[in-house]
User: Which sequence fits this backbone?
């Protein structure tokens, strides 16, 4: 069964600290992996998109890694800010079109001053 | 979110009544999607459209119907709302069906009482 598992489910950190979010997947065949940020009351917004051949992708203070062999991805946030408080969703696309997206349940990050 | 608008943003309705949610885009994208988001679940695809009058079912389509008579509008209808359809509904658009430019709306919070 195609699944995307995220950990931890929630995390609280202090402003300025770094953190890493994990995503494990069993989706096959694999097309691409995406990380989204979802602010409360808003829709998800794309942070990074990685295909099979890419193992690192950065977007400002966000850096995603992908290990296609172990089917794991991580999202590292550097020097966290209060505005990083949000839910983060890992999404894996199976080959065959975007209707084959498998969403993780998301994890809630809280950044405290 | 730029280019995609969902209406209404909030709605409370009674069990057994019909409800229609609207997604409007100004990007002229070919693909449009309806998702629902519930606690403890990842986003789940209800229906999607790959062109005017071209639609298909997603993984949780029971109790929902859709219509797309114009490129810019994708309507989601609950023919007879039930409490299990209380959820946050997101529309998404995509130009090519691929990951780039895949954009979500801000969501509609629907409560069925």
Assistant:
């Amino acid at each position: 069964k195609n699944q995307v598992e995220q950990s931890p489910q929630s995390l609280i950190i202090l402003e300025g600290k770094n953190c890493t979010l994990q995503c494990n997947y069993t989706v096959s065949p694999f097309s691409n992996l995406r990380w989204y940020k979802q602010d409360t009351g808003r829709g998800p917004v794309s942070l990074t998109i990685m295909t099979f051949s890419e193992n690192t992708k950065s977007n400002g203070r966000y850096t995603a890694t992908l290990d296609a062999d172990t089917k794991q991805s991580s999202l590292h946030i550097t020097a966290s800010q209060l505005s990083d408080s949000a839910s983060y969703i890992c999404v894996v696309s199976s080959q065959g079109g975007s209707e084959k997206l498998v969403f993780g349940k998301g994890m809630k990050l809280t950044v405290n001053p | 979110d730029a280019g995609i608008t969902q209406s209404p943003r909030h709605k409370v309705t009674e069990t057994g009544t019909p409800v229609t949610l609207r997604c409007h885009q100004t990007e002229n994208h070919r693909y449009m999607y309806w998702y629902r988001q519930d606690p403890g679940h990842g986003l789940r695809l209800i229906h999607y459209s790959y062109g005017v009058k071209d639609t298909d079912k997603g993984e949780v389509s029971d109790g929902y119907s859709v219509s797309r008579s114009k490129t810019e509008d994708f309507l989601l209808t609950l023919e007879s709302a039930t409490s299990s359809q209380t959820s946050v509904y997101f529309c998404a658009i995509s130009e090519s069906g691929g990951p780039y430019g895949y954009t979500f709306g801000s969501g509609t919070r629907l409560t069925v009482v």
Summary: Chain A has no helices and eleven strands. The two ends of chain A are 41 Å apart (CA to CA).
